[in-house]
Each structure stands twice: as structure tokens, then as C-alpha cells.
């Protein structure tokens, strides 16, 4: 079961989860396929335990360039168990490879799963999982860039995320916690981005059977509060439209530096209501015109896309073409280069009369919309993502 709402980007998991002890470098773990792995230094800490550099067992110590990491946690903890099931079902290397071939995608940012097992030490049992080793996370990059990403980069990240989400959705899962701190660059290629942390991933369609829409007051606001979907705020199990809605909030934050409800994240009801008001308010602001600033040519297509119902499959291809036309309007191409430049203004603005980046404040408290819509042009990429993919046919349909 997913933990309750995390406060923000780098929040830690609830204290009731047990923390794994630190293993010394050189500890050897054997997976269920009888393959042995050696641990190196820890490279990260989750809410429950540590993530170590790792390699296949050999005489050599595990160095800084290790190709794998191993996540270890006490065996009774739930989140790694859920995450492991996602990786075992959907992230086997040959499955990813086949998908990339059939879908003709050059890169798919889902870390590959290499093995898992149980390890005993000092009378305690630990669960572990071996996945690809990655590099820096995008939250760090976002901060280094002065909390604003260039528009070209936001559009490219949107494209990469659509590929990832389509893959995981087609394999019966939703992620439910997309955010910069859960996006990591490859260790070897700074132009490849990966979605990590499947601790909240939810199997929305086990064996192809979709879950029914059901609000549950006991499960309200799961996820990371500023980004979580309106469905999640209402205690409804995560679905595909929610992942796209969350992505759209991330894109808005990357473009504009902040979300309209960031001033009061400790109040989940306020955040939920702001999201509902904001989507409705922004939708009535002539969003298609503003979207044109970012995605000229895409707006028409986008307006023909109906809002998604709870069980609906998003039109990934339409969304991709919207983002592609946004790049075109910036006289840019999806060249596969992720350029993290500070200030967010690196890409030329298509309409010089309108600023290329969003100011940090100026949201109407009543409607949740931007007070000067023209200046907030970037916002509407997110809004249109919501309309096209996330959908606002709440509570149901
Ligand atoms: N594949 C990886 N390669 C390198 N470092 C990683 C990898 N996966 C995770 N890390 C590092 O470990 C940290 C924690 O990872 P992760 O978010 O998956 O753990 P978690 O327990 O789910 O965390 P949280 O409870 O905060 O959600 C990350 O912030 C990152 O620094």
C-alpha cells in the first residue's frame, strides 16, 4: 500500500518503515537465479535503506564506475516488495528491448531489472533488487538551473516521459509519483533520462482488467502533495490519466519555477481545490491561444482531444505530436540533446511580445489561474496536457 502524501520532492518515507543496516563493501548477495553480486559503496538513501553500487561477483572490489546498483531493505517492508513486482513484471531487459524495437524508440528510460533475492545477516532477513546504475537526479539539475528549465528541455522531457509512461501503462502499471527527484540521468550518457522509484507504482489493470472508480476517504492525497493527481486527492486508485496529470504539473513547475498551490502544501484540501479551480480557470482563459506560444500548430489537434475518463487510454501519439509542434515553434528539433542551462530562457521565444519564461508569482487566488495569462504562456502546456491526457471528467466517467 502506498504511504500517505509525501510533503515535497525529496521527502522521506514514514518512520514506521524499518531502516536497513549498512553493509560493508564486499558483501556478496546471491539472487534467486543463483547469480552472485558484490556490493560497493552506498550511493543513495531511500526512506527504508540504502542503495549500493554493485557488480557481478568477482575477485575485484566494486569501483566507482560500477554498472549496477542494489537496493536493500528489511524483508518485511512493503514498498520495495511492490517496486520489485513492478520491475519483475515490466522491466526485464528483453521486454524493454523488444518494446524499443517494435515502437522504434532509441531510448526508453525504465531502469532494467537484473535480479533480486533475500539475504540473511545477523539473524535478519533483507530483500534486495539489482537494477541499472544511474547518475544525477533532475531535482539537483532543476536547482542548479535556478529552478527553471528551458522550454526546449521541458518539451523534450515531456516526450521522454510520454514514452516511459506509455510503456509502463501498456504493462499494466501506473507510476503515480513522477517528479524531478524521481528522474535520473544515465550514468554514462547525460542525454538519457530515466524514471525511478516504483514504490508507489500501482497495477491498475491486473491481467487487463481495469479497476473501478471508487473514492476512499481513508486513502486521500496519496503521492507527493504538489504533483499528485486529483483522483489521488480523492482517494481513488491511480490510473493512466493521473500519471499524465502529474506530468503536466511537473512541466508547469519546470517552466515556471513553481506551482500555484506551493504556498500551502501542508493543507492537502487547499492543494486539491486549487488544482480543480486552476484547471477550470485556466481552461477558460483561451488556453489554446496561449498553448500556441509553446506548441504552435499543436493546439488544433489538442482541442480535438476529449478529456479522458478514469479508465480511458491516453492518446500518447497525439500528445507527442503536440510537444513536437511546440519544439517546431521554437525552431528546435527533438535532437536528443538535453541541455540544462540556467535561467530557462535559452530557447528563443516564438512571439517576442511575450516573455520566454514565467515569473514566479501572479496567480489569481480565486480562480487559480495566471493573472497575466500571456506572461504565463508556458503554463498552458501543462494545462493542455491535463485536458488532452489527464482529463477532468471528475468524479467519474
Ligand atoms: N538506479 C540508481 N542509480 C544510482 N543511484 C540511485 C538509483 N536509484 C536510486 N538512487 C539513489 O538513491 C536515492 C533513493 O532512491 P529511491 O528514491 O529509489 O529510494 P526510496 O526509498 O524509494 O526513496 P523515497 O523513500 O525518498 O521515495 C535516490 O535519490 C538516488 O540518489
From TrEMBL:
InterPro entries: CK1_Ser-Thr_kinase, Kinase-like_dom_sf, Prot_kinase_dom, Protein_kinase_ATP_BS, Ser/Thr_kinase_AS. ATP binds at residue 71. Residues 7-17 have a biased composition (Basic residues). GO terms for molecular function: ATP binding; protein serine/threonine kinase activity. Its EC number is 2.7.11.1. It holds the Pfam family Pkinase. Gene3D superfamilies: Transferase(Phosphotransferase) domain 1 (1.10.510.10). Residues 37-319 form the Protein kinase domain. It comes from the Eukaryota. Residues 1-27 are annotated as: Disordered. Keywords: ATP-binding, Kinase, Nucleotide-binding, Serine/threonine-protein kinase, Transferase. PANTHER family: CASEIN KINASE-RELATED. Belongs to the protein kinase superfamily. This is non-specific serine/threonine protein kinase.
Amino acid at each position: 500500500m502506498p504511504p500517505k502524501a509525501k510533503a515535497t520532492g525529496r521527502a522521506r518515507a514514514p518512520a514506521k518503515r524499518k531502516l536497513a543496516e549498512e553493509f560493508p563493501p564486499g558483501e556478496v548477495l546471491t539472487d534467486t537465479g543463483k547469480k552472485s553480486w558484490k556490493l560497493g559503496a552506498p550511493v543513495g538513501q531511500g526512506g527504508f535503506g540504502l542503495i549500493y553500487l554493485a557488480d557481478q561477483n568477482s575477485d575485484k572490489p566494486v569501483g566507482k564506475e560500477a554498472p549496477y546498483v542494489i537496493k536493500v531493505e528489511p524483508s518485511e517492508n512493503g514498498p520495495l516488495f511492490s517496486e520489485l513486482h513492478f520491475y519483475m513484471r515490466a522491466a526485464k531487459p528483453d521486454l524493454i528491448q523488444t518494446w524499443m524495437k517494435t515502437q522504434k524508440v532509441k531510448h526508453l528510460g525504465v531502469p532494467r531489472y537484473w535480479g533480486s533475492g533475500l539475504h540473511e545477516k545477523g539473524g535478519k532477513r533483507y530483500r534486495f533488487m539489482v537494477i541499472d546504475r544511474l547518475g544525477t537526479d533532475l531535482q539537483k539539475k532543476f536547482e542548479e538551473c535556478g529552478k527553471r528549465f528551458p522550454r526546449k528541455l521541458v518539451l523534450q522531457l515531456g516526450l521522454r516521459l510520454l514514452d516511459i509512461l506509455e510503456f509502463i501503462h501498456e504493462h499494466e502499471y501506473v507510476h503515480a509519483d513522477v517528479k524531478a527527484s524521481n528522474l535520473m540521468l544515465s550514468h554514462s550518457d547525460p542525454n538519457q533520462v530515466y524514471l525511478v522509484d516504483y514504490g508507489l507504482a500501482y497495477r491498475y489493470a491486473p491481467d487487463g482488467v481495469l479497476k473501478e472508480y471508487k473514492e476512499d476517504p481513508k486513502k486521500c492525497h496519496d503521492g507527493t502533495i504538489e504533483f499528485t493527481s486529483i483522483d489521488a486527492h480523492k482517494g481513488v486508485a491511480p490510473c493512466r490519466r493521473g500519471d499524465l496529470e502529474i506530468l503536466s504539473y511537473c512541466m508547469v513547475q519546470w517552466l515556471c519555477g513553481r506551482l500555484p498551490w506551493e504556498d500551502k502544501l501542508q493543507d492537502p484540501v487547499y492543494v486539491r481545490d486549487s488544482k480543480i479551480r486552476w484547471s477550470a480557470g485556466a481552461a477558460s482563459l483561451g488556453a489554446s491561444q496561449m498553448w500556441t506560444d509553446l506548441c504552435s500548430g499543436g493546439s488544433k489537434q489538442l482541442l480535438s482531444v476529449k478529456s479522458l475518463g478514469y479508465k480511458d487510454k491516453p492518446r500518447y501519439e497525439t500528445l507527442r505530436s503536440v510537444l513536437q509542434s511546440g519544439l517546431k515553434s521554437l525552431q528546435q528539433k527533438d535532437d536528443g540533446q538535453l541541455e540544462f542551462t540556467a535561467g530557462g530562457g535559452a530557447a528563443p521565444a516564438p512571439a517576442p511580445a511575450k516573455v520566454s519564461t514565467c515569473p514566479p508569482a501572479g496567480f489569481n487566488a480565486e480562480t487559480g489561474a495566471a493573472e497575466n495569462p500571456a506572461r504565463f504562456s508556458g503554463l498552458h502546456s501543462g494545462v493542455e496536457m491535463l485536458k488532452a491526457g489527464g482529463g477532468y471528467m471528475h468524479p467519474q466517467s
